[in-house]
């Protein structure tokens, strides 16, 4: 909300600079910043065009003689299509400065001298979308005669000073100039004064043509109308137009502008209808039916049964509290007007505006709340302005669809308790004075105080709100500095968080980059990697279809990251994410949040160089990263990998479950070629681990031991085995039969092809034996080695080579 200081002066004295006022308001808890319009503008004056002739060397330029208050008229060449003799216009004289560093200089245009520029509003700083539509493609023309040579800044509000306040949801009372005047006035101990709107009572009549019905009274506690007949629709006065475009509202006509002006003045949205366009002269506030259509200028909106609407018979006039359609819009032919002021349920308005992507000034105010104590006065003010600017012949009294008497809130508190909570020792008079500055009525009885809160401050309900108000106005900067008292809590991470941080550091040390993705996915993405077989958790009101569901895996987000980078020729990627996924068991209302760590690797893991050849990522490279992670968990568990083809979007021949003591704790694998093609990514390997399950594993005791004093003995073993036998099975059996001195087993050769039996493979293993307390003999080693070979032959029918 932008608070114009020139407008604010109508309510309270303004003697401070806009910078000082913004700083002072910020100290009361409402963030504010100063805005100075048109600081760069110079030499802009009113010009009176006395003659216009065609340019001799152009078919669209005009040569104008313009009176700018000097001894002689000046000549200006202008190309605007709407330039004409007799107009009062904006002239930038020679040497003038315009926005964006533009400077006007005297010169010749196609041989004709031009001593300045006749300007449009957009050329002097008014954004084009907020200009009156009739001047969108031409110069601005004043409706009334002005004094040539007079500065245009005040006339057009080009150098208005404003305070831009950042409204929090609980302070919607400052979304109107009057509410802002109370807030700023309290800050400077100045009570605002307001003129109560009045009508020409000779025009007010009892009868009305319109009947109104509010079908949803619980959602519409107040709904009032007034008829104005015999109006003349034309331009609004300039003072109103300039205040509107400085509030980022485009002037339309004197009826619509009056409604918008009151919205800014009171914070109460007002709607206007062409009375003659209503079917049967009736209005109903009700829910729409599925499939109903609202006709707007740019498109039609298809409504459903959850949309609250204003209708006339079968015609839908608008979405209540959101937007009006074009069906009964006020235009230049309108003669009779119906003005509407109401209070609509904030939640209903918000959901409707969000559903149809129509959030605006009206819905913003109803979402946050409006003062139901000034609805009738705001309607009276709008009626007054329309009558003043359009000279209505007759005006109806209030037509009531629904009315709820606004009652002030009464809060009881204690002077001592207020002081105690603030850490101050203010007297009762000082505290009561603060309440009085805010416009609150008070009654003191000993230490007890009863405060009556006006309806404009509907955010206040309990004693703590009184304490906050005293704090704000007294000044947070004036509160005494004290150290906190009481028990201290030692900071630090939980054990689970420490494990998560350790895993993160390991991946960073491995050269991987951390990413952070949204926790919301599309329906297809949650279906693609539902590896934990959970129920999907859908948002009631998602932002978009791509953000409908809480994620059940981190892999879809990583795949998006890979696709984004590869589309930009960044092919070599090693990324990971540590975050929570959402697991909702069947029948459970809320999902469980589970900590996961996932990674994705694609492209080359070793780049091509003078002494190295490029190496593509493969399954075993990523498995090495996972092994490194698991080794640092210090878990007293046996980790293993089990080949699987149950994950539809992972390659069935290069995918495995990760197990800890036969419990699945994650997965590793290559993306399926079809899935890679659909996501526009090249070969990519991924892994995912459940941190919560890793944390639950028992820790093992680590004991330091001295370096071995005796040498190790090695044996190599080559076997021919069926191709369906896994390496992990062979190694497990070797350890099971190798005896207590077998220290390590490594596979060093794998061969399939020529000179090998069909469906078989040749594997080579390196076995290392070590006795830390004595020198091993060949007899001891050969005995263990023989047991290993015998077991392999019996269990797997291998051929020792």
UniProtKB/TrEMBL annotation:
GO terms for cellular component: phenylalanine-tRNA ligase complex. It is found in: Cytoplasm. Its EC number is 6.1.1.20. Keywords: Aminoacyl-tRNA synthetase, ATP-binding, Cytoplasm, Ligase, Magnesium, Metal-binding, Nucleotide-binding, Protein biosynthesis, RNA-binding, tRNA-binding. Residues 708-801 form the FDX-ACB domain. One of its GO terms (biological process) is phenylalanyl-tRNA aminoacylation. One of its GO terms (molecular function) is transferase activity. Tetramer of two alpha and two beta subunits. HAMAP family: Phe_tRNA_synth_beta1 (MF_00283). Belongs to the phenylalanyl-tRNA synthetase beta subunit family. Type 1 subfamily. This is Phenylalanine--tRNA ligase beta subunit. The lineage of its organism: Bacteria, Bacillati, Bacillota, Bacilli, Lactobacillales. The gene is pheT.
């Amino acid at each position: 909300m932008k608070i114009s200081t020139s407008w604010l002066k109508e309510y309270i004295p303004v003697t401070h600079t806009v910078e000082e006022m913004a700083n002072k308001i910020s100290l009361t808890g409402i963030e504010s910043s100063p805005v100075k319009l048109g600081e760069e503008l110079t030499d802009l004056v009113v010009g009176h065009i006395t003659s216009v002739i065609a340019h001799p060397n152009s078919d669209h330029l005009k040569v104008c003689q313009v009176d700018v208050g000097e001894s002689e008229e000046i000549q200006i060449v202008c190309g605007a299509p709407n330039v004409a003799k007799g107009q009062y216009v904006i002239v930038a004289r020679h040497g003038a400065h315009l926005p964006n560093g533009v400077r006007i200089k005297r010169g010749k245009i196609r041989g004709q001298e031009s001593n300045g520029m006749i300007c449009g509003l957009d050329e002097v700083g008014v954004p084009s979308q907020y200009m009156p539509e009739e001047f969108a493609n031409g110069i601005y023309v004043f409706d009334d005669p002005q004094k040539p040579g007079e500065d245009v800044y005040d006339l057009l509000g080009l150098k208005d000073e404003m305070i831009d306040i950042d409204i929090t949801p609980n302070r919607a009372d400052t979304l109107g100039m009057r509410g802002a005047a109370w807030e700023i006035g309290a800050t400077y101990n100045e009570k605002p004064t307001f003129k109560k709107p009045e009508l020409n009572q000779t025009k007010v009549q009892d009868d009305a043509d319109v009947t109104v019905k509010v079908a949803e009274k619980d959602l519409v506690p107040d709904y009032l109308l007034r008829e104005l007949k015999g109006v003349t629709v034309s331009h609004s006065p300039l003072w109103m137009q300039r205040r509107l475009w400085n509030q980022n509202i485009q002037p339309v006509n004197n009826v619509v502008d009056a409604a918008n002006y009151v919205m800014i003045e009171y914070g109460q949205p007002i709607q206007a209808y062409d009375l003659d366009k209503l079917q049967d002269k009736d209005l109903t506030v009700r829910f729409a039916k599925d499939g109903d259509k609202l006709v707007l200028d740019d498109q039609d909106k298809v409504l459903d049964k959850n949309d609250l609407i204003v209708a006339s018979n079968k015609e839908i006039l608008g979405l209540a509290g959101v937007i009006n359609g074009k069906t009964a819009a006020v235009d230049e032919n309108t003669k009779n007007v119906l003005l509407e002021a109401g209070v609509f349920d904030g939640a209903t308005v918000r959901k409707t505006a969000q559903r149809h992507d129509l959030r605006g000034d009206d819905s913003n105010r109803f979402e946050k709340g409006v003062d139901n104590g000034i609805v009738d006065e705001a309607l009276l003010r709008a009626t007054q302005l329309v009558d003043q600017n359009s000279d209505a012949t007759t005006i109806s009294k209030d037509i009531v669809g629904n009315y709820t008497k606004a009652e002030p809130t009464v809060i009881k508190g204690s002077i001592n308790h207020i002081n105690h909570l603030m850490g101050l020792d203010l007297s009762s008079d000082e505290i009561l004075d603060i309440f009085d500055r805010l416009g609150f009525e008070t009654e003191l009885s000993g230490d007890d105080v009863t405060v009556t809160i006006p309806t404009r401050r509907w955010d206040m309900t309990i004693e703590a709100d009184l304490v906050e108000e005293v704090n704000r106005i007294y000044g947070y900067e004036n509160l005494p500095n004290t150290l906190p008292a009481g028990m201290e809590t030692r900071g630090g991470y939980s054990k689970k968080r420490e494990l998560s941080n350790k895993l993160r550091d390991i991946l960073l040390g491995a050269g991987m980059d951390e990413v952070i993705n949204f926790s919301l996915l599309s329906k297809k993405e949650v279906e693609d990697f539902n590896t934990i077989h959970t129920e999907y958790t859908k948002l009631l009101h998602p932002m978009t279809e791509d953000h409908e569901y809480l994620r059940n895996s981190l892999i879809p987000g990583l795949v998006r990251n890979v696709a984004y980078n590869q589309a930009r020729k960044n092919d070599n990627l090693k990324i990971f994410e540590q975050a929570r996924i959402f697991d909702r068991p069947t029948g459970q209302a809320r999902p469980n949040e589970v900590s996961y760590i996932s990674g994705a690797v694609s492209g080359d893991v070793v780049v091509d160089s003078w002494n190295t050849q490029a190496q593509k990522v493969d399954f075993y490279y990523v498995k090495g990263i996972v092994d490194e992670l698991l080794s640092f968990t210090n878990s007293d568990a046996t980790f293993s990998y089990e080949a699987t083809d149950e994950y539809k979007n992972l390659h069935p021949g290069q995918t495995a479950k990760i197990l800890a003591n036969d419990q699945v704790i994650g997965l590793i694998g290559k993306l399926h070629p079809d899935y890679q093609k659909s996501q526009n990514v090249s070969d990519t390997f991924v892994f995912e681990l459940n941190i919560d399950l890793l944390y639950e594993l028992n820790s093992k005791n680590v004991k330091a031991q001295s370096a071995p004093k005796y040498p190790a003995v090695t044996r190599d073993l080559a076997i021919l085995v069926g191709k369906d036998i896994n390496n992990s099975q062979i190694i497990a059996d070797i350890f099971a039969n190798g005896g207590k001195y077998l220290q390590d087993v490594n596979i060093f050769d794998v061969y399939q092809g020529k000179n090998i039996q069909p469906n078989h493979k040749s594997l080579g293993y390196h076995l290392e034996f070590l006795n830390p307390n004595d020198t091993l003999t060949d007899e001891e080693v050969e005995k263990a080695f023989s047991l290993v070979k015998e077991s392999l032959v019996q269990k797997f029918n291998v051929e020792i080579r």
